[in-house]
Write a structure and sequence with these properties.
With 573 residues, this protein is an alpha+beta fold. 20% of the residues lie in helices and 24% in strands. The protein contains 13 helices and 20 strands. The strands form three sheets. Strands 1, 11, 12, 13, 14, 15, 16, 17, 18, 19 and 20 form an eleven-stranded mixed beta sheet that branches. A seven-stranded mixed beta sheet has the order 5-4-10-9-8-7-6. Helix 9 packs across helix 12. The longest helix has 14 residues. It is rod-shaped and about 125 Å long. The protein starts with 9 loop residues before the first helix and ends with a strand.
Amino acid sequence: MFSFFRWPSARVGLLVLGMTAATITPIVISVPALSQDTVPSTTPSPATPSPATPSPATPSPASTVNLSDVSSDYWARPFIQALADNNVITGFPDGTFRPNQAVTRAEFAALIQKAFGNQNRVRQLSAGGFSDVPANYWAASAIQQAYETGFLAGYPGNVFRPNQQIPKVQAIVALTNGLGLTASSTGTSSDLSTYYSDASSIPDYAVSSVTIATQSNIVVNYPDVKQLNPQQPLTRAEAAALLYQALARQGRVQPIASNLPATQYIVGGTQTGTDIVSLAASSNSFTTLTSLLKTAGLADVLQQPGPYTVFAPTDEAFAALPAATLQQLQQPENREALIKILRYHVVPGAVTASQLSAGELKTYEERPVNIQIDSASNQVSVNNARVIQADVKASNGVIHAINQVLVPPDINISQLNQPPTGNTDGTTPNVTPGRTTLGGPSYIGVAGNIGLSGNDTALGDTNFAVISKIGLTRNISVRPSVLFGDDTIFLVPLTLDFAPRTAGSVGERTFAISPFIGAGVAIEANLDTDFGLLLTGGVDIPIANRFTVTGAVNAAFMDETDVGLLLGVGYNF
């Protein structure tokens, strides 16, 4: 018999369509480094030599330097660690550096002696020396050398005040004078108000020296590059930064890498852009990310005030994607997918590593990433990616470098590698049986059928089934299946496959569903082979690289209308 539409079955047909629409609606799965080596751990009395002073002839090996309170993301770590590795400074006996502790004039003299020990002497200290620096004082030699090389001077009354905390501006003047730096003639600004919001606080005697030091890229300001705080006591971290920049000015050390967060605190006449895109572009680690941001038209967005937090995949992370993925992402037809992927790496606000907490963090793609924190190692992970460099601070946010590309759950990376689905003129799609569609790969598998209504065929009963999906084009597939029973029935629907969309998370695993809807023919295999219209709709849920869970509602309009719910698992091919 050939019975397509029978009016008494219309209400059932409407029911099927309603169930199909509900099926393709997104389903949420819910289950439940620095001290000068002459500085003791406590400030000694004038008559007490420093117990922490090592012999100059036996420097500590650089490989043993480990300053426990200078973390990997501490702003001044590059300066501190480099000087410690070169034995310019060492830590305290307890292994700490105490970066925020103020530096005394005696301690700064000791640092100068270690960093610039070969500087020519320009004057001579009187035989009696400073009245408040006894001959056996722990820093007497350093103070004499700092004076005679022109770095530091005394106060009226022949006093040095060795235990007085040295203001930052005095340290800057000392370095400028001792190194004999002169004003720049390259056109850089001499107006300190262009560099510092508190330029008016700089003492008159120091204006010229601060200008020269600024033009020489010696000044380092944290946390605000435009805030000098000239009269504030110099901290040990700031002292390390100033000394390193002074050594770099002399060419004795290499400038710190341009992609390190510390560079944004160096004041100078030739500063480069410090927004997120500019910092990424200046680094050799983010060339691919920078290129993709420009391709997607997002570079201009991330140069706006924000603030933004960017989990930035390195070039190695992009290189680890499946072959040809990068090329496909840059094709016009995949621009929307590229934008989704890049927006999935961006979070509103400037969130530093210390501010991150375990749990979901919403991205600009309107889909959350999952933050995990290993308290034992203080390691931060985003989904399955590991943060390998935290807190690269930009003027409009912060960058965290990660070692994997984050892919939104509704993006199927594998389908980006498929050849174009149309001819060169874009008119007729190419049919490639067995290909991956927009909804996922082709598969063959087994299922169980639950009869919902009717009893004319195996579709209306509880039965075993063999199922399959054979992709034809980017959006179209055919899904032949057979339901075994007293009245075995073959279902051959042609379906329209939709892009994956978020389904939810189970633990750390995020799932996505790929809806489909279609129509075809139902064939009842009995003595009187019967044909009928088939309507179908459902979802595919990839659960691993090789398997797909599927569920579908099928309605076959035979002599009677049979409706069944098919639940199964397929092996991808």
